[in-house]
Design a protein that fits this description.
The complex is a heterodimer of chains A (about 300) and B (about 240). Chain A is mainly α. Chain A has helices at about 5-20, 25-50, 60-75, 80-100, 105-125, 130, 155-175, 180-190, 190-195, 200-225, 240-250, 255-270, 280-295, 300-305, and strands at about 135-140, 145, 150, 230. Chain A has one domain. Chain A is about 75% helix and about 5% strand. In chain A, helix 1 packs antiparallel against helix 7 (about 155-175), helix 2 (about 25-50) runs parallel beside helix 7 and helix 11 packs across helix 12. Chain A starts with a helix and ends in a 6-residue tail after the last helix. The N and C termini of chain B lie far apart (about 40 Å). Classes of the chains: A mainly alpha (about 300), B alpha/beta (about 240).
């Protein structure tokens, strides 16, 4: 086992142990952070590894969220099935959007993905009769059960969040270390050269987007099923910007960066909002400091200076 | 044994708006030869080889490679058929190591679907290629830190990593020192033992030394073609290009 794999296993082991040691409040937070970090990791595949700046990942998270939520509400499909549907919905949506959006690159890609995500958001509102729009709906508790265990129970919820995050994180690690991951990095660094080495750049990008969409869908479905609420906010632009922010904080194209970024941002907002209403200003200052001292995110900068082997 | 035709074009044409950069070119390249493509700036040489490699699409005409019509194939598929292209303006993965650069080329050749070769085989093959161009001792350095001449060599190494049947070199000696050029000439000769080489080149010393045959382009058309001595003696070529 290489030290890179060892480090990631150790982080997962630490998270598993935290389940037994954390006070109740932080225990609940960490479950939420792990699900959001799975979303950030999904975004990292597109943005960090393949170098595509998407501003539309809320639609993939939302696809998973609504797939699980609507399946429970109208189809009577309970938690494990909902998660599977979420993964499929996210991947499918990413593949369809990708076929169209990948005709563009750079700023155009950013705008096209943003546009698709807004269209998806408005679709959720348009079908308000079923989705209940902004107001959202609560998933019935009998739908939130896995193997007879109640996902509303903190310990079960923690383990479920841990499982989803662990799968996505190890999936990211596998991508980062694979031939496919090296091709994505090559595309990010020099697309034309990669094409002239015989790689089908369009297909590789589409595949990256579909994998990213599947992971984001899993995170969305998990969020719906673990916390029991489905609402249009989660498909709004805010949820396209947040993963970008988390990934930039932790370090783009690092496997652990998305988790670290999500954790820090979550607690920064949590702590600062407890003593000021201007907590977004504090977040702003933190981001400026980050750009000054950690231009490649925390782990990205550490990798550059101290630990070059970090995947 | 009669040489086999590796590549031919029929009526190959590319227009950019009102400008016809490549104009109905009939071209044939035999397997195993070193062909130099010369001509004044703007003659259409780079456009022509870009049509061969698939980086740009022709307005009319066909490209046939190893008996197969590849006109409709995208660039990456042509690379897999054995056409490798090295860029006129050096194009490497500047932030990666030399070994990673070459690995990407070798990996493509060894990949089955998205399954790559095992790491050890990949490294060995990549190191062998770096050794061939004389960069093995710098394998773990960052490509962007190399001197310009070494970056050109790395670019050739990436081409070699693909084990192409046809290697297209677009002005490979531009910006190299005399010593580097001498080394480069030896390298191309060595490469030509198991690949066909098509070389765009302005340095007439290099052309005369290396080429089995020379094709002269002017205004998007082939002006003359023949062995070096004949081209040197050709009055038309002298007027158009050699400044005689």
């Amino acid at each position: 086992m290489s030290r890179a794999v060892g480090l990631h296993i150790a982080v997962l082991a630490g998270l598993a142990l935290a389940q037994f040691t954390l006070p109740e409040y932080h225990h609940g937070n960490l479950a939420r952070i792990m699900v959001l970090a799975a979303f950030a990791s999904a975004y990292n595949i597109t943005f960090g590894y393949a170098g595509m700046l998407s501003l539309g990942h809320a639609m993939f998270f939302g696809a998973g969220l609504y797939a699980a939520g609507l399946a429970a509400e109208f189809g009577g499909i309970a938690a494990p099935g909902g998660l599977v549907l979420g993964v499929i919905a996210g991947a499918l949506m990413a593949a369809v959007v990708g076929v169209l959006a990948l005709r563009t690159t750079g700023v155009s890609f950013m705008i096209v993905t943003l546009m698709f995500a807004q269209a998806a958001f408005l679709t959720v509102l348009y079908f308000g009769e079923w989705t209940r729009g902004d107001e959202g709906f609560v998933i019935a508790s009998d739908m939130r059960r896995v193997l007879g265990l109640d996902l509303a129970d903190p310990a079960t919820r923690y383990w479920a969040a841990f499982a989803v995050f662990g799968a996505v994180m190890l999936g990211s690690l596998a991508v980062a270390r694979s031939s496919f991951g090296r091709v994505l990095a090559a595309i990010r660094e020099n697309e034309e050269r990669t094409r002239m080495l015989g790689y089908d750049v369009f297909r590789a990008k589409l595949m990256a987007l579909a994998v990213s969409g599947a992971m984001a869908g899993a995170a969305g479905a998990a969020y719906a099923l673990l916390f029991g609420y489905v609402g249009a906010t989660f498909a709004s632009i805010q949820y396209s910007i947040l993963p970008l922010l988390w990934v930039l904080t932790g370090g783009a194209a690092t496997v652990l960066g998305p988790f670290l970024g999500t954790l820090l941002m979550f607690y920064l907002i949590d702590v600062s909002s407890s003593f000021t209403t201007a907590h977004m200003m504090i977040v702003g200052f933190a981001l400026i400091g980050l750009i000054l001292f950690f231009p490649k995110g925390i782990l990205g900068t550490l990798r550059e200076r101290v630990v070059p082997w970090l995947p | 044994m009669a040489a086999m035709t590796l590549l031919e074009t029929h009526g190959l044409t590319r227009r950019f708006g009102g400008l016809t950069a490549v104009d109905g070119v009939e071209f044939r390249l035999d397997e195993g030869e070193i062909r130099a493509l010369i001509g004044p700036n703007g003659a259409g040489k780079t456009t022509f080889v870009s049509l061969l490699s698939g980086r740009i699409r022709p307005s009319a005409g066909r490209v046939v490679f190893a008996g197969e019509d590849v006109t409709r194939l995208p660039a990456h598929a042509r690379v897999m058929r054995g056409i490798a292209y090295t860029f006129q303006i050096t194009s490497i993965f500047a932030r990666m190591t030399l070994l990673d650069n070459v690995r990407l080329a070798v990996q493509r050749r060894m990949m089955r679907g998205w399954r790559g070769p095992d790491a050890r085989a990949l490294d060995a093959a990549a190191m062998a290629v770096l050794d061939r161009v004389g960069l093995a001792d710098r394998a773990t350095g960052i490509a962007g830190n190399l001197s310009y001449g070494h970056q050109r060599l790395l670019e050739v190494a990436m081409g070699l990593g693909l084990r192409p049947r046809l290697l297209i070199l677009d002005e490979p000696t531009q910006g190299l020192s005399d010593a580097e050029i001498a080394g480069f000439v030896d390298l191309v000769r060595e490469i030509a033992r198991d690949a066909t080489v098509l070389l765009i080149e302005h340095n007439m010393g290099v052309v005369m030394e290396l080429a089995h045959r020379i094709t002269v382009m002017e205004m998007g058309q082939i002006l003359a073609e023949g062995p070096p001595e004949a081209i040197r003696a050709d009055a038309e070529v002298q007027r158009a290009y050699l400044g005689g």
